[in-house]
Amino acid sequence: MDYNLLINIAAVIFVVWFVYSRFAGVKGLKQLTSAQFQDELKGNSNKILIDVREPGEVKHGYIAGAKNIPLSQLKQRVSEIPADKTVYLYCRSGMRSKQAARILQKKGFRELAHLQGGIMSWKGKIAK
């Protein structure tokens, strides 16, 4: 048996799994455009808006009303998010907010939405 071949196959499988886990959709996560995100935030009084970027990124601007819980701290700070509210998530590009949605789903959250393209796609006002 050629061990190099086995190692190469294992490496390819790992890379495919890694890429899939980062880019695959999250079942049950509402993916909203900037306009849809704005409409939902205005129309839903039973909500919480979470910015999962790091504090240094938030200093450059954020969506008004957002609570900053960085993805790196989310597992430890889940108790700060009311389970009975719709959770709206955003980050810089949409990747971390998807990861945050996966974490929250595992913790039992069901009403989850995120801003596709992150704050870079946001057409609304930015607070500083």
TrEMBL record:
It comes from the Bacteria. The chain crosses the membrane at residues 6-23. It comes from Paenibacillus chondroitinus. This is Rhodanese-like domain-containing protein. Pfam families: Rhodanese. SMART domains: RHOD. Coiled coil: none annotated. InterPro entries: GlpE_sulfurtransferase, Rhodanese-like_dom, Rhodanese-like_dom_sf. Keywords: Membrane, Transmembrane, Transmembrane helix. Residues 43-127 form the Rhodanese domain.
